[in-house]
C-alpha cells in the first residue's frame, strides 16, 4: 500500500488485540511512519525516526471504535425524529468525524478523534445527520434551527438536549431510619420477589 500512495490508510483487524492482523509498530516501520493507522483495540504509541532529518517522532495509533460515531448518529436521528436512517445520513456522520481528525493539523497525531471528546464528536455528527435528514425529507421534528441560522445555533440546540450522566450522590442510611424499600422489605406484585422480601 505504501508504494502506491503517500499516506496509506491501514485499518488492521485487531479485536481482540491478541488476534491482530498487524501491529501499528510494524505498519509504521514498514511505511517509514507515513501510514495513517487505526485499530479495533488500543495499542501503545509508536516512536521512530520519521521526523525532520530523521528525528524521533511518537505517533499515536487511533482506535477505530464505533463509540466515536454511533452516539452522534443516534442523537441526530432522535432529535430530528427521522423516518429512517439512510445511506446519506451515515455518509454525513462519517464526514462529521473526518472533519475532527487530529491528523488534519498534525501528521503525527491520531487519524480519528479519541473517545475522550466523544461528546464534541457526537454534536458534530448529530448536526451532519440532521442536515442530511432534512435534505432527504426524513426529518419530522418541527423547530429545528435552519441553515440560515448557522451551524453554531444548531449545535447549541443539540447540546441543550443531550443527556448528561450526572447522578445524585449516594449517602449511607441507618437501618432504623430507612424506608421499607431501602431495607428490602417490599414485595413486587406477581411471582417475582425482591431479595429479602
TrEMBL record:
SMART domains membership: Malic_M
InterPro entries: Malic_NAD-bd, NAD(P)-bd_dom_sf
Malic enzyme NAD-binding domain span: 1-134
A Pfam family reported for this protein in Swiss-Prot or TrEMBL: Malic_M
PANTHER family on file: MALIC ENZYME-RELATED, NAD-DEPENDENT MALIC ENZYME, MITOCHONDRIAL
Protein name: Malic enzyme NAD-binding domain-containing protein
Amino acid at each position: 500500500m505504501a508504494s502506491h500512495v503517500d499516506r496509506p490508510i491501514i485499518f488492521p483487524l485487531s479485536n481482540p488485540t491478541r488476534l491482530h492482523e498487524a501491529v501499528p509498530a510494524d505498519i509504521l516501520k514498514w511505511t517509514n511512519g507515513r501510514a495513517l493507522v487505526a485499530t479495533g483495540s488500543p495499542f501503545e504509541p509508536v516512536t521512530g525516526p520519521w521526523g525532520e532529518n530523521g528525528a524521533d517522532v511518537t505517533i499515536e495509533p487511533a482506535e477505530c471504535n464505533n463509540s466515536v460515531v454511533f452516539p452522534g448518529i443516534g442523537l441526530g436521528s432522535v432529535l430530528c425524529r427521522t423516518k429512517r436512517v439512510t445511506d446519506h445520513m451515515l455518509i454525513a456522520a462519517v464526514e462529521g468525524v473526518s472533519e475532527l481528525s487530529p491528523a488534519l493539523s498534525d501528521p503525527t497525531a491520531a487519524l480519528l478523534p479519541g473517545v475522550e471528546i466523544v461528546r464534541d464528536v457526537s454534536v458534530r455528527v448529530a448536526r451532519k445527520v440532521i442536515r442530511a435528514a432534512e435534505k432527504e425529507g426524513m426529518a419530522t421534528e418541527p423547530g429545528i434551527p435552519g441553515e440560515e441560522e448557522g451551524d453554531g445555533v444548531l449545535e447549541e440546540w443539540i447540546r441543550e438536549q443531550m443527556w448528561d450522566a450526572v447522578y445524585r450522590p449516594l449517602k449511607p442510611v441507618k437501618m432504623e431510619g430507612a424506608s421499607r424499600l431501602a431495607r428490602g422489605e417490599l414485595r413486587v406484585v406477581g411471582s417475582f420477589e425482591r431479595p429479602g422480601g
